[in-house]
């Protein structure tokens, strides 16, 4: 656990922020390389980058504050809500915010939405993999008690309240699965049959992978589980999975009508 990457002239640079920034850069760069196959200028993706960053951070932080309002933010003022450099970004909120930003950008620039979504889709899990490594360094999103050889221990009295007893390295599980998903989607992009297919497959795949990792998470308060069984991440995975399946059913029909 290394929450602080380095300090420079009195300025503290947090590891989580560094990894999130690297994730954004890696995602935007790889997306800019893919757009050439869709006859879209790489400059369009670079221009889209700030839109995605703002939308993702606003959405991710808003959902985090809403989810953990009672435990972390009630009665503490506005400054703790803004401290994103210390962690506390919910991916699904970031995905929603980034999708809305992309939708607006595509409309204003008159770009084909589903082509743009396919270009960006593989880069989403790539960027998230970096972010999950940041979670590991920060000590958030930790797992349940674990007796496996690969269990990890966080330092005692750490800022995020991670247990100092052996726990599942859920952040690493998620990072590895997201790297694998990135490779699979990048391969699918070169073989896709209709616009929007890669993005739809991403929604389905990520919902399933996220739900799997959630079984090992240990950082949710007991009162946040729906029916005492489903974690907040698994609850949001349900409509995400449904949206992906609906798109896989509808988009081929739309593609045939446009031929």
Summarize the helices and strands and which ones pair or pack.
Blueprint: E1 4-8, E2 11-14, H1 15-34, H2 42-67, H3 69-73, H4 79-82, H5 91-109, H6 113-120, H7 123-138, H8 170-189, H9 197-214, H10 232-258
Antiparallel strand pairs: 1-2
Describe this structure in words.
The protein is mainly alpha-helical and 259 residues long. It has one domain (4-258). It has helices at 15-34, 42-67, 69-73, 79-82, 91-109, 113-120, 123-138, 170-189, 197-214, 232-258; strands at residues 4-8, 11-14. Helix 1 (15-34) packs antiparallel against helix 2, helix 2 (42-67) runs antiparallel to helix 5 and helix 8 packs antiparallel against helix 9 (197-214).
Mean pLDDT: 89
- Please, how many helices? 10
Biggest sheet record: 2 strands, antiparallel
Low-confidence stretches: none
Radius of gyration: 19 Å
State the end-to-end distance: 54 Å
Structural class of the secondary elements? mainly alpha
N-to-C series of helices and strands: EEHHHHHHHHHH
| Helical content class | 55-70%
How many β strands by DSSP? 2
Percent strand equals: under 5%
> Strand sequence of the main sheet, in spatial order?
1-2
Structural features:
single chain, 259 residues, mainly alpha, two-stranded antiparallel ribbon
Short synopsis of the structure:
This protein has 259 residues and is mostly helical. The protein has ten helices and two strands, in the order E-E-H-H-H-H-H-H-H-H-H-H.
């Amino acid at each position: 656990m290394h929450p602080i990457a380095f300090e420079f002239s009195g300025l503290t640079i947090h590891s989580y922020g560094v990894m999130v920034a690297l994730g954004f850069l890696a995602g935007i760069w790889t997306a800019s390389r893919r757009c050439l196959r869709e006859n879209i200028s790489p400059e369009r993706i670079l221009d889209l980058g700030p839109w995605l960053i703002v939308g993702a951070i606003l959405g991710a932080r808003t959902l985090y504050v809403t989810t953990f309002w009672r435990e972390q933010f009630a009665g503490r003022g506005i400054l703790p809500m803004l401290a994103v450099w210390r962690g506390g970004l919910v991916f699904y909120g970031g995905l929603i915010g980034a999708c809305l930003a992309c939708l607006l950008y595509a409309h204003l620039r008159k770009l084909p939405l589903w082509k743009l979504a396919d270009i960006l889709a593989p880069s989403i899990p790539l960027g998230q993999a970096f972010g999950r490594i940041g979670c590991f360094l920060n000590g958030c999103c930790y797992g349940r008690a674990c007796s496996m050889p690969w269990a990890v221990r966080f330092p005692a009295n750490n800022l995020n309240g991670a247990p100092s007893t052996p726990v599942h390295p859920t952040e690493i599980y998620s990072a590895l699965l997201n790297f694998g998903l990135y490779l699979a989607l990048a391969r699918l992009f070169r073989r896709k049959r209709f616009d929007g297919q890669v993005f739809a497959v991403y929604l389905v795949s990520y919902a399933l992978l996220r739900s799997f990792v959630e079984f090992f998470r240990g950082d949710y308060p007991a009162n946040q589980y729906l029916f005492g069984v489903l974690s907040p991440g698994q609850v949001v995975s349900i409509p995400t999975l449904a949206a992906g399946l609906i798109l896989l059913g509808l988009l081929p029909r739309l593609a045939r009508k446009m031929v």
